[in-house]
Design a protein that fits this description.
With 836 residues, this protein is an alpha/beta fold. Helix content is 29%, strand content 27%. The chain contains 22 helices and 37 strands. α17 links the parallel β27 and β28. α2 runs antiparallel to α14, α12 packs antiparallel against α13 and α13 runs antiparallel to α14. It is globular, with a radius of gyration of 31 Å. It binds zinc ion. Zinc ion binds next to loops.
Length: 836
Amino acid sequence: MYRWLIVISLVVSTFAWGELPKIVPDRGQTAFEQAVKRAGTDLKLMCLAAHPDDEDGATLAYFGLGKGISTTFCLANWGEGGQNEIGPELYEQLALIRSRETMAAARLIGADVLCMNLKDFGYSKTQEETIRKWGSKNMLRKMVFVIRKVQPDVIVTNHRENEGHGHHQALAALLPEAVKLAAMSDKFPDQIKRGLWPWKVSRVYQRRNLPYLPNGENFDVEVPVGTYDKLRGVTYAQIAGAALQCHRSQGTWFQADKLAPSTYFKQILPVDGKPASGLLDGLEKEHSLARGYFPVAGIKQDVLEKAGYKKCQKALAKAVNRMDGSRKDVGKALADALKALRKTRAKIQQDMSDAMEAKSPGVSVYRAAIQYLYTREVDISNALGKCSGLHVSASLDDPTLVRRQEFTTTINLANRGAGSIKNATAKMLLPYGWRVIESGPAAVGEIAVGDSASLQFKSRVYSESPIYGEIENLYKKTTPPTTPVRVRVTATAFNVDFTNTIEVPAQLLGKLSVLPQPHVIYVAPPQQGGRSLTFHLRAVNNSHETTNCRFTLTFPSTLRKTALEVSPSSREFKLQPDGSWAWKVGLKIPADMRKGEYTAFAIVESDKGDTAACEMKVVVLDATLPASLKVGVLPSYDDTLANSLASLGASVEQLQADRLSFRDLSQFDSIFVDIRAYLAHKNLPQHNKALLDYARSGGNLVVMYHKTAEWKSEYAPYPLELGRDRVSVEESEVRVQMPLHPLMTWPNQLHDEDWKGWIQERGLYFPSKADDHYSRLLILNDPEEPPLTTGYLVAEVGEGSYIYTSLVWYRQLRNGHEGAYRALANMAAYPRRERK
Ligand SMILES: [Zn+2]
C-alpha cells in the first residue's frame, strides 16, 4: 500500500522539512478564499486508489486547496484485509476504523471520498486473481458508476497494471475500459435510468515515480506539490504528509514529512494527440460542461451559452480576481453570478418545455444542463455565505437518537462579516417520516455585524425508521455514512438570496442493544469432568426512559438435551435512562460433548415492547492438548493467541516484555511470542536473551511472523534473516516435508484437511536465509512461483527448542479454523513429546 512512498522518501532525503506542521481545518479568510476559488471553477479531479493511504494526497491538495478544483478519492475498499497496527480489530471492524481515518485524511486535503466496496480479500499478487475474485463486469459496473457519479474531467491513479498489489494492478488494468464505457449511454443503462448521465472523462493520468523509471520511460506532466500555499503557510506535500498520518492503523508514517516536491504523471488517455503540458491545462477553457457540450447520447449543443451562461462565468471570474481586494467587490460579483445563473436556468427550463412539446430528441441535454446549474449554485451560494461572514452551526440536544424520540435542534447564525445579513430562515432537512413538531420563529429579520441569533426546532424520529449498524451503514453505499439530520439556511446578502446546507452530527440507534463478549468461544472437548466457560453480556439503554427488562437465554432444542449447564438462564433487571447493565452467563461443557457448533441466543425484552438479541456461539473442536500444560504468551495487538491456547485447555499467563529478565521462566512448558512483538514492545530486544536462555535450558520458544524491517537475525538462536516473500493464495498447496515430525503428529495427527479452508493468505515475510540448524517442515508457494521452504521452522537449542513460523496462524485461529488449533496444540505440546 505504501511502497511508492517509501521509495520516494529514500530518494529525496536531501529534501527534508523536518517536523510536520499541524494542519487545521479552514476557517475565516482561508475558508472564504477556498469557497470563492471553488465557485470559480467547475473542473473535477478524481484519484482512483485501491486502499486507504493509496490516494495521491499531494496532487489532490495542490489542485483542491490550491486551485479550488473539486477533488474526490475513490477507493476500491476500506483495506479491511490488511493488518492492524493499533489494536485487535480486523475485517469489518478494521474497515470502520480505516473509513474514519480516510475521512480525517480527506478533510485535511479537502477531498470527498467514495468507496466501491470491492471486498478486500487480502494481499493479492496478480491482477488475474483480483479480477477473478471481483469479476471484471462487476468491477467495470462499479467503476463506471463512480465516474458517472463524480463526473471527473481528469482521473489520476498511483496504480500500474504490472506492479504491486493485485488490487492496484486490476484497477489500473480496467480503468481505460471503464472510462470508455462511462461515456456510452447504452452501457449499464440501469444507472442512466436511476438519474446518472453518461460521462466523458477528458484525460487519465498514471503516476510515475522519478527517478525509478525503467529505460526509455518518461512522464508528461509535473505537479509542483512542494509549492507553498500562501494562506495556510505550508506546502501541499506537507498537507498530504499530515493527512497520511491519519492512517494510524497502517503504522507510523515516519517518512510523511519527506514527500517529494513534485509528482509526475504519464498521460494514459486519450491515447493519441500531444499530451498537455499541465494536468488540467487547457481544460479550464475548453471545458466540456461550461461550453455546453454534454456527453449525453453524443449530443452537442450550446445549451448553456445560448441561455446566457457566459454572464455568470464572467462574474465568477471577476469574483476570483478580486479576492485580494475588498469582500464587498467579491460579494457583488458572486451575487451577479448567482442572478445570472438563475436567469440561465429559467431560460433553459423554458427551452426544455418547448422541446418536450415539440418531442425533440434533445430533452435530456436540457435536463443535464439544469442539474449542472443546481450543483454550481451550491458552490456559488457557499462562497456568498463565506463572503458575507454568515457562520452557521447546529447541534442536537441529544445526538444519539432512537425511534419515536423527540429532539431539539439549535441553529446558531452569526454574522462575522462586514455587512448586514437579512431574512435568514432555517429549514430542517429530515429523513422520510421524521417530522418537525414544534418550532419557534424560523426566521430572523436581520443579523447585524458581530451579532448572532439562534433558532430552535423540535422534531420527532419516525417510528418505523430503518436502523442500521455502523458496519452495515459503511457497506450499504459508495458514500461513507453521514448524519440523518441536516439544516438548510437561506439568507440575503449583497442583495441576493443564497442557501447554505450543513450537516448536524447525529446517529440513529435501536432503543435497546445487547452484546456478548466474546461472540464465539472455541473449545477443545474437556478430558474429564467438563469445563466452564463464561460469556459477558451487556445491555444498553439508548433511550431516556427507565426501562424494566427481562433477559432470557434460549438454545436450539437439540442442544438443551446435552448436559450443557447454564447459569443464569433468565433474569430481570432495570435499565436507567441511558444506562447499561452487565452480567455473566456461565456455560458448562460436559466431557462427552461432541465436536460441532452450538448457538445460544440472549434476548432482552423491555416492558415497553422493545427487544434486542444477540448470538453466543460455542464451537467444540477436535483438538487435544496434554493435561496441565502451562504456557506463557507475549501478546502484541490482540488476545487471539492467548485465548486460543486457553480454549485448548492450557493454563495461560500473559507475559510483560520488560519483566522477562526478572522472572523464572522455567515454569512454562512453552512461551509464545506473538506476531510482530519485536515491534510492539520496544524493549523486547533487550530482554531477548532471557527468552533464548529459557529455550536453551529446556523451554520451547515459539515466535510468530514478523516484518523484515522490525526483525534482526540475532533474535533467533541461529542466524535467521527475513525476506519479503509471501504466499498470498490461501488455497495454495501445502507440502509437508517431515510428515513424521512431532509437530505434524502429536498429540494431533495433522491431515490434508487441516490445511484446507484457510482465509486471507498462507503467510508473509518468509525467512530469506535460515541456518542449517532449522528443520524445514513445509514447502509452499503461490501458483507459478518458486517453492518456499522457510514458512515453518524448528530447531533444537541446548536442552530445548525454538520454533519460527511465518504462517498467518492468528487469522485462522480467530476464524475458528480447526486445523490451526490442532497445529497450535502441537506447538504448545512440543516439549512433552516422546524423545528418542
Ligand atoms: Zn494499496
